[in-house]
Specification:
InterPro entries: Aldolase_TIM (IPR013785), DeoC/FbaB/LacD_aldolase (IPR002915), DeoC/FbaB_aldolase (IPR050456), FbaB-like (IPR041720). This is Deoxyribose-phosphate aldolase/phospho-2-dehydro-3-deoxyheptonate aldolase. GO terms for molecular function: fructose-bisphosphate aldolase activity. The chain has one domain: Aldolase class I (TIM Barrel). The protein is built from 12 helices and 10 strands. The strands form 2 sheets. It has an 8-stranded parallel barrel with strand order 1-2-3-6-7-8-9-10, surrounded by 6 helices. It has a two-stranded antiparallel sheet with strand order 4-5. Helix 5 links the parallel strand 6 and strand 7. The longest helix has 21 residues. It is globular, with a radius of gyration of 17 Å.
């Protein structure tokens, strides 16, 4: 690993783990994802005070973090692609594109990001969408190597649209492990993976990745259940989480961050982190 890549990785994995709070939902073009993100400056201010390890944003919002004067503010993880698989209605043409095709990580370098993140979509009967993702990753991987930028790949296995409607994750361990292995083979430095339906199988994802694995949060759920599941996944070898709506859509995001940071960096269990959350 190049020294510049390692230096950026160290900004993310303070004390060995990472809580990355995802705020990059605007690129999904899905109104329900934006509830709680109407005042982005206020959300960023709340999170900087809560002090997670990182905040995940797209280029057009990253100035709200990187323009701040604090020396110890969270690291920036920059989303550099966008697509249309997130909408409730399946589109006739599914696509995933880099936000800057000619020079895909120039915005991340400009904003002093610690990492970039791109999707690897696996949807039923959408081979061209998968091909586009592979092309995106290939192009970004070359640029990341050139400039010493860590690459986070987000493998997403989705259910057929008719199963539950809209953007829904398939938690089948076999499918997740297979796609995570592909992400690893393509040169991921970090993998953001969906939890398996059975948390006790998540160690297989970690073993397939061979790089740090951060658990992806998905939609908002009951917080006590989220904390219990997160603790189980950490025991299976996860190095942290990338959670968005389970943080920013709660009434007290700082308390949620405190609980998750205690889990990641101090080994707190599900019940203990629930108590930490309730103490605010």
């Amino acid at each position: 690993m190049r020294l510049s890549t390692k230096a950026r990785m160290n900004r993310l994995f303070t004390r060995g783990g990472c809580l990355d709070v995802a705020l990059d939902h605007g690129v999904c073009n899905e109104p329900g994802f934006l509830v709680g993100l109407e005042d982005m400056a206020g959300v960023v201010d709340t999170l900087v005070r809560a002090r997670p390890d990182a905040i995940q944003m797209a280029y057009g919002q990253a100035d709200l973090l990187q323009g701040r004067p604090e020396k110890d503010k969270p690291a920036l993880v920059m989303r550099i692609d966008m697509g249309n698989p997130y909408n409730a209605q399946r589109h006739k043409v599914m696509w995933s594109l880099l936000q800057n095709h000619d020079d895909p990580i120039v915005g991340a370098l400009e904003m002093d990001a610690a990492c970039v993140v791109v999707n690897l979509f696996m949807l039923p009967d959408e081979p061209d969408l998968f091909r586009q993702c592979v092309e995106n990753i290939s192009k970004v991987r070359a640029a990341c190597h050139r400039y010493g930028m860590p690459l986070m790949i987000e493998p997403l296995v989705m259910l057929p649209n008719e199963v539950r409607g809209g953007y829904q994750v398939d938690g089948n361990a076999e499918k997740i492990v297979t796609l995570v292995r592909l992400a690893s083979e393509m040169g991921a430095d970090i993998i953001k993976a969906d939890p398996t339906d059975d948390p006790e199988e998540f160690h297989r994802v970690v073993e397939a990745a061979r790089v740090p694995v951060l658990v992806r949060g998905g939609g908002k759920e009951d917080l006590k259940a989220v904390l219990a599941k997160s603790a189980a996944l950490m025991k299976q070898g996860a190095r942290g989480m990338v959670y968005g709506r389970n943080i920013y859509q709660h009434s007290n995001p700082k308390a949620v961050v405190n609980a998750l940071m205690a889990m990641i960096h101090q080994g707190a269990g599900g019940e203990e982190t629930w108590d930490i959350y309730n103490r605010g």
